[in-house]
Every structure is written in structure tokens, then in C-alpha cells.
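Friendly challenge for the regulars: who can give me the C-alpha cells for this chain first? No prize, just bragging rights.
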Amino acid sequence: MGLVHLRVVPGGHCTLVYVAGEIGSRDADLLEARVAAAWVAGGMAHLVVDLSEVPFCDSAGRAALVRLLLRVRRTGGRLVLSGVGPRLARHLHAAGLRGWFELCDTADEAVARAREPYAGERGERGERGERGEHGESR
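First reply, four minutes later:
Bragging rights claimed.
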């Protein structure tokens, strides 16, 4: 396993990070640090992480995504994930994390979502739902 590539595309209102490769326990902290550094350097409130080229993401990788999400939210920004494959989507759901993230099929959709006014927590695939502080249904 290994993080193959990280490509950052700063935008007008968000930082877009493309991740490619397997995210295992050895790479999760590095991924989190590099994505956070790119987001901070970009100076944008919002962050889009495209995972369409990530065939595998273990629990450490999912934990890194949660930490990124919480960091972005603490500053009033939002993190949108794009290209989440079926395997990762199943793992997010099984871990009770699916409702924590705003998910879009493509990076373009995620960038557009980041432009929308934020109306609080969203459920799967952007459906609005009443959610608690950590994304759980009430």
C-alpha cells in the first residue's frame, strides 16, 4: 500500500485536492498533513477532496478524513468528498460516518456544492436531513 499522488488545485472559493493510490495506516497521517497544509496554504474556507483514484482506504485513512472534516468545520468551512467508490462508501456507512460527509460523484459537482450556501449537516449524497452534531440521525 502507499499514497501514490496528491495534486492540489486552488480555486476561487475552495481548495481541490485529488488523491490517487491506496491509503493505508502508514500513509493516513501523511495524507492528512499534506491535505491540511494545501488547504491552509490555499487560504480558502472550503476543501474538496477527490477520491476517485483511491481503490482502498482503511480505518486509519477514514479517521484522517474525519479529522480533516472537523478541522475545516471548526473554521466555518466545509469539506466535500467526491469520487467515493462503492467500497469506501460501504466502509463509511458501516462505520456510521456516511452522514458526516457531503458526497458528490465528481469533483466538478463537489466544487459546485462548496459554492452553495451551507444549510447545516447533510445526509447521504447531499440530501438534507436533520442530523446531530456528529451526523447521526435524530
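The first helix runs from residue 28 to 42. Residues 121-138 have pLDDT under 50 and may be disordered. Your move, everyone else.
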